[in-house]
Design goal:
With 136 residues, the chain is mostly helical. It is built from 7 helices and no strands. α2 packs across α4.
Length: 136
């Protein structure tokens, strides 16, 4: 499930990069969500250090008065990374034999798991291509 929603999130972020003033509120939101993640789930020093460092970097991008273009560029990089990583992660559904979303769907609907994984990969690729075409 994470992969399919990752593509959607990446496409939404990519669409948001078209308006420069949207980058800063998005960075505030992502930074705040990272700190919430720190409080709820992170239980080791390394994880806490990494999450805090990223949150500080995102807050700095959001807060800076002269970081408009830099924030827009950083949001573009983040959006592309999220979307492509999600498409790349779907390949794991083809390689993992065991409890995956595709295996669950195969059990529920009697359609083989590779068909589900292929369908999700195709939907993700179509959404990504459509977003890239409409936002360029």
């Amino acid at each position: 499930m994470r992969s399919r929603f990752g593509v959607q999130l990446g496409c939404l972020l990519l669409a948001a990069t078209r308006v420069e003033r949207r980058a800063k509120p998005i960075f505030w939101g992502i930074g705040a969500f990272m700190l919430l993640t720190l409080v709820l789930w992170i239980r080791n020093a390394f994880g806490a250090l990494v999450v805090v460092a990223w949150a500080v970097a995102l807050f700095a991008l959001a807060r800076g008065k002269k970081t408009g273009r830099v924030a827009g560029f950083a949001l573009s990089v983040l959006a592309i990374q999220v979307a492509l990583n999600a498409v790349f992660d779907i390949r794991a559904l083809f390689l993992v034999h065991g409890p995956t979303d595709a295996a669950t769907m195969a059990r529920l609907f009697a359609v083989p798991a590779p068909i589900w994984a292929g369908l999700w990969m195709a939907m993700s690729a179509v959404l990504l291509v459509w977003t890239l075409r409409t936002t360029r």
